[in-house]
Amino acid sequence: MKNDRLFSGLVLVIIGAAFLLHNFGVVDFHWYNIVRLWPIFLVIGGINLLLANTRTVWATIVKVGVLVIGLGFVLFSNAGRRHNDSSLFNFHYNIDDDDDNDVDIDIDDDKDDDIKALKANATNVFQQPYTADIKHARLNVSGGATTYVLNTSTDSLFKAATREYYGNYNLSTSKEDSVTVVDFDMDKHNQHFRLNGGHMNVAQISLNTAPIWDLNLRGGAAKVDFDLTPYKVRSLNISGGAASCDIKMAANLPLTDVTVSTGASEVTIRIPKNAACDIAVSSGLSSNDFDGFTKISSSHYTTPGFEAAKNKIYLKLKGGVSDFNVRRY
C-alpha cells in the first residue's frame, strides 16, 4: 500500500513540476511528445505488473527509477520536434517553372538496398493551365502520409510534382459560380500510412499568384511546409489526425482566415509585423507560445491595435494534443 502511494505521489510531483517549469519558461514542454513516446507508458506499466507482488527494496527502486526516467523523458525531452525535423531521407525539391513535364525530386541518403528500391517509385507532374478570367480559385488537397511543400509560384493555375511511395494522386477541376475549384487528392482506398516505414509521399505544389485563393488541406498524418507570402490567401484550412505544420503568411488582403484543426499537432505560423492578428485557441492539451500578443483570456490573444488595423489575420487553432507557436517576422 505504501509503495502504491509512493508511486502515485511521484507521478503527481513529476507532472506538477513539469507544468510549473513550463509556465515559468524554464523548460519548453511539447505535448506532441506524448504521441511520439507513448510506448514509454507501456514500459512503465509492464515493470509495475512484473514487480507487483515483489515488496523488496530493490523492486521499489526499479519501479521508481523506471517511472522517473520514463516520465522525465516524456515531459522534458524534445523528441517530437526532433522527429519532425529529421527523417530517413533529406528531400530536395527542384521544379522548373515551365510547361514541360520534367520533375526533379531528389532523395539524398546513405542507406542500402531498401532505400535504393524506394527510389524507383513513381514521380508525376499534375498541371492546370491558367487563364486571365480566373479571379478566384479554391484548392482542395486531401491525402495522408504526405509531405506537402508550397514555396514556388507558376504561370499555370496549379502545378504539383509528386513522388509517390504508395497511393495515387488525382487532379480535377470544376467551376462553382465564379470560383475555379482545383481538387488534388489521393485515391481513398490508398490513404494509409505505414507506421514502421518512415517513408512519406512528397508533393511539391506551385500556385499562380494572380487569383485570390481559398486553400483547404485535409489528411491523416501529414507534414506541411507552406510559404504563402506571394499569394492573396483569403482562407486557409488545415485538418487532419497528426500534423507538423510550418506556415508563413502574408498580409496581402484586408482579411485572412486561418483554421488549423488536428488531433495531435506541432504548428508554427509566421505572421508579418504589419498585419494585425487575432488568435482563438481551443485544445484539450496544448502548449502555446504567442510571442508579441496580448492575452485577452486563456483562449484568446490579439496583437496591439487590432481593431483599428487595415489588414487582419484571424487564426483559429484547434487540437487534442498540440504545440501551437505563432511568430511575427
What would you say about this model in short?
With 329 residues, this protein is an alpha/beta fold. The protein has 6 helices and 16 strands.
Question: Any overview of this molecule?
Answer:
- The chain is an alpha/beta fold and 329 residues long.
- Helices cover 22% and strands 46% of the residues.
- Strands 3, 4, 5, 6, 7, 8, 9, 10, 11, 12, 13, 14, 15 and 16 form a 14-stranded mixed beta sheet that branches. A two-stranded antiparallel ribbon has the order 1-2.
- The longest helix is centred in the N-terminal third of the chain and has 22 residues.
Uncertain parts = 80-101, 106-120, 189-197
Name the average pLDDT: 79
Question: What percentage of residues falls in helices of 4 or more residues?
Answer: 10-25%
Listing every helix as H and every strand as E from the N terminus to the C terminus, the arrangement reads HHHHHEEHEEEEEEEEEEEEEE
Alpha-carbon distance between the two ends: 55 Å
Largest sheet: 14 strands, mixed
Question: What value does the Rg take, in angstroms?
Answer: 23 Å
What percent strand? over 45%
Structural class: alpha/beta
Summed up, the domain count is 2
Anisotropy-based shape:
flat
Task: Give structural attributes.
14-stranded mixed sheet; 2 domains; single chain; alpha/beta; 329 residues; two-stranded antiparallel ribbon
